[in-house]
Amino acid sequence: MKMPFIVALAFVIATSARADPPKVAVFDFELVDTSLQGEVYGARLDERDRLIRAGDQLRKELADSGKFTVVDVAPVNAAAHGSNLQACGGCEVRFAEQLGADLAITGVVQKVSNLILNMNIYLRDVHTGQIVTAVSADLRGNTDESWSRAMSYLLRNRLLAPNYGAPMQQ
Questions:
Q1: Whole-number percent of the chain with pLDDT over 70
Q2: Fewer CB within 10 A of the terminal residue: the chain, N end or C end?
Q3: Backbone angles phi, psi at 86, to 5 degrees
Q4: How would you label 63-100 residue by residue, b for 16+ Cβ within 10 Å and e otherwise?
């Protein structure tokens, strides 16, 4: 799902008028495991570690880009982990607001099987509660490398791409 270009453009114009880059709260990723393996064997430590690394990779790349100031989510981390950020009715916006952030980013990895996974990232405007953009990538293989590559793709080709959301030129 990608928000209309006009909404994204309005957000970019509003944030570019500021002297400082927007402050973003990046929450830890969550896993939705609908696989047979997950049902039979339960949660896996390697997947929990990958969720943490995915969030860390996203924070680092956003900060390194200079387009965002990443705020520390530690003060609300326990509350965020106690919530289902994908279904809590916007609680991530309230948490990000407590941190003084302009944007809240959540992510979820859906595991269909050890071969088929999907990584989704949602970016919300803290001031309006509206989704600014949502990006998604399918990945094949439940490995450190496949998760890292999916995150790199989403950052490079979606979240940090200079013309993402712009109409195609003919």
A1: 85
A2: C
A3: -85, -10
A4: eeeeebbbbebeebeeebeebebeeeeebbbbbbbebe
- The DSSP-derived string for 120-150 is EEEEEETTT--EEEEEEEEEESSSHHHHHHH
Residues 83, 79: Cα–Cα separation, whole Å: 6
Distance CA 106, CA 92 (A): 8
Q: What is the CA radius of gyration of the chain?
A: 16
Give the relative orientation of helices 91-98 and 74-81 as an angle to the nearest 10 degrees: 160
pTM, entire model: 0.83
Average pLDDT, integer, range 19-44: 91
pLDDT for the residue 81? 85
Tokens of 107: 């992510």
What pLDDT is stored for residue 14 in this prediction?
Answer: 54
Average of per-residue pLDDT across 101-112: 96
